[in-house]
Structure formats: structure tokens, C-alpha cells
């Protein structure tokens, strides 16, 4: 059972961190999930206490909201630039450990920080595979994917104040869908995605990933898989848009890729950080982001 450390800023993502913590505790048990160093003994160096806490964990989830990067202290200085900042110590300590998996978790519509925007000690974070946790109604599906990726078993939603119900059962007075929904698809082995770029041939190679239908219902034929190449803020282009011709049953797995695609002529800088995103499109109005790669450079 992995030991998980949740790093977050109270002024940035307290609500989301709390909800994610509750789901992880349900899946892995409270002794295996750490969210706060509640009390630092009098006279102890808090930097050492934080490093000791991080050293006990196998996984660190770095919860990043819209203010995480640029939030300031009472003097107007950016907190991340302070070597004594709690969050900086937590993330820096985890990045220095070979045995700790560091996973950025983007909440509240936040974007992944660029390496150049981070202190030198934290720049490795920009190249870590990020996961996205959206607001309701997608929150539970997104967190369930994190739980599965960390080796947790099937997880249900926390029990509400009213009579509990299974997350896969219909809410009372609701109509249960006849087919699986896009949020039921799980990306398997996203860390195995590789990128191979030839500037002379201007092509991008994307290795194979797999999609698993975690629903108890079939995925119908006709859904589409879309791959998007983006440079945060100013550039975005669809690489491929593939139709899934046949339905696949509950629990079954379908391969996606590998793909080799031509690069747009707009890509000229070797210093920019790029990402690939994978979407499933179940209808003209429903497009779900399933996976966002770690940042990479075109060499």
C-alpha cells in the first residue's frame, strides 16, 4: 500500500485538497495519506520536520490551483521564491528523492507551470506527468483514475448525509444511461507514452497507450479519440481525430496508437515546453480530457 503525501496551499486549493484527501483515505486508509503536518514540536527546525514527513512517502501529489504559482506573502514577495516556504520545501524534498513519485494535480482550471516560471530547485516539476481534477460532476471520476493509477482498488464516493448509494448506481429519480459515459474510460500506463522528434522530418511519434472501459456498460461505436499538441496559452493544434469503429464491452481494453504525425510549421523554438492531450468525444457537445502528458522539448 503506497504512502501518499498531499502538498497544497491553503489559500489556493484548500477545498479541492480536502475532497481529494477524503477519497484517498477511503481507498488507501488514513495511516497511508498525509495532508498536513499538524504540529511542529517547539524548538524543532520546521524544514527538517517537513523533509522527514516527505521522506516517509512513496507518492507526493502536488495540488496546483490558479494561484499556486504566483501567490505572495504579506510583503508582496512570491512565496515560491522563499527557500523557507512550506510548499517549496515539500516539493523540493520530494523531487530530490529517486524513490518518490511526484504527480502534479491541476485543479480549478489551472495550467501546468512552465519550467522558466519556477525556482531552479523546482523546475523538474514542469516535466512531471500532470493529472487534471475537474469540478463536479467530473470530480469523482477524475479522482478515481488517480486512485487506480496508484494501485488502489475500486473506489466509491464518500457516503452522503442521506442514504448512501453506489457511485455507479443511478441517483434516485435519475435516468440511468444505456451506455458507458466518457468519464468511465481509464488511460492505462500513461507514463509509457514516449515522444521521438526529428526536426529534419518534422514528425512527432507518440507511443501506444490503452483505454479501459471501467463501466458496467458497453462503449458504443462511433466515439472519437482526439490527440492535441499544445504549448500552454498561445498554441494548440489537433494532431489526429480517430473514430472508434466498434463498440467495446465492460472491462475490455483497446489500444490507442502508436501515431506518427507531421509537425505544423509554427513549431520553431527548441526552448518551449509542449504537451500532448488525449480527449474522448462521445458526441458533438461532450469532449472529455482523459490524459495530459508531461512537458517535453523538441530537440
Q: What does it look like?
A:
By secondary structure, the protein is α/β, with parallel strands linked by helices. The chain has two domains: 4-149, Toll/interleukin-1 receptor homology (TIR) domain (Rossmann fold, 3-Layer(aba) Sandwich), CATH 3.40.50.10140; 182-292, Sandwich (Immunoglobulin-like). The chain is built from four helices and 15 strands. The chain has helices spanning 10-28, 46-55, 86-95, 139-149, and strands at residues 4-7, 33-34, 59-64, 101-107, 131-133, 185-188, 195-198, 203-206, 209-213, 224-231, 235-243, 253-256, 259-262, 275-283, 286-292. The strands form four sheets. It has a five-stranded parallel β-sheet, sandwiched between helices. A four-stranded antiparallel β-sheet has the order 11-10-14-15, with no helix packed on it. Helix 3 (86-95) links the parallel strand 3 (59-64) and strand 4. Helix 1 (10-28) packs across helix 4 and helix 2 (46-55) crosses helix 3. The longest helix is centred in the N-terminal third of the chain and has 19 residues, at 10-28. The protein is globular and about 65 Å long.
Amino acid at each position: 500500500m503506497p504512502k501518499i503525501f498531499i502538498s497544497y496551499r491553503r489559500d489556493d486549493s484548500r477545498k479541492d485538497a480536502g475532497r481529494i484527501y477524503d477519497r484517498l483515505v477511503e481507498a488507501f486508509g488514513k495511516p497511508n495519506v498525509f495532508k498536513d503536518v499538524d504540529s511542529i514540536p517547539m524548538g524543532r527546525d520546521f524544514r527538517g520536520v517537513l523533509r522527514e514527513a516527505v521522506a516517509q512517502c512513496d507518492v507526493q501529489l502536488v495540488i496546483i490551483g490558479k494561484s499556486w504559482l504566483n501567490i505572495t506573502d504579506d510583503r508582496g514577495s512570491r512565496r515560491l521564491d522563499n527557500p523557507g516556504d512550506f510548499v517549496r520545501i515539500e516539493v523540493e524534498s520530494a523531487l530530490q528523492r529517486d524513490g518518490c513519485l511526484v504527480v502534479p494535480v491541476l485543479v480549478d482550471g489551472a495550467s501546468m507551470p512552465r519550467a522558466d516560471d519556477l525556482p531552479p530547485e523546482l523546475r523538474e516539476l514542469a516535466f512531471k506527468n500532470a493529472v487534471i481534477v475537474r469540478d463536479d460532476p467530473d470530480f469523482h471520476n477524475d479522482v478515481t483514475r488517480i486512485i487506480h493509477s496508484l494501485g488502489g482498488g475500486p473506489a466509491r464516493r464518500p457516503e452522503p448525509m442521506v442514504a448512501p448509494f453506489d457511485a455507479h448506481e443511478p441517483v434516485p429519480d435519475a435516468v440511468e444511461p444505456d451506455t458507458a459515459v466518457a468519464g468511465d474510460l481509464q488511460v492505462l500506463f500513461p507514463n509509457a507514452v514516449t515522444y521521438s522528434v526529428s526536426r529534419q522530418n518534422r514528425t512527432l511519434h507518440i507511443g501506444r497507450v490503452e483505454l479501459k472501459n471501467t463501466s458496467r456498460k458497453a462503449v458504443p461505436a462511433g466515439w472519437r479519440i482526439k490527440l492535441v499538441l499544445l504549448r500552454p496559452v498561445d498554441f494548440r493544434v489537433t494532431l489526429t481525430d480517430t473514430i472508434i469503429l466498434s463498440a467495446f464491452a465492460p472491462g475490455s481494453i483497446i489500444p490507442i496508437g502508436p501515431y506518427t504525425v507531421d509537425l505544423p510549421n509554427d513549431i520553431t523554438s527548441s526552448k518551449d515546453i509542449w504537451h500532448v492531450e488525449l480527449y474522448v468525444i462521445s458526441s458533438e457537445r461532450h469532449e472529455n480530457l482523459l490524459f495530459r502528458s508531461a512537458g517535453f522539448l523538441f530537440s
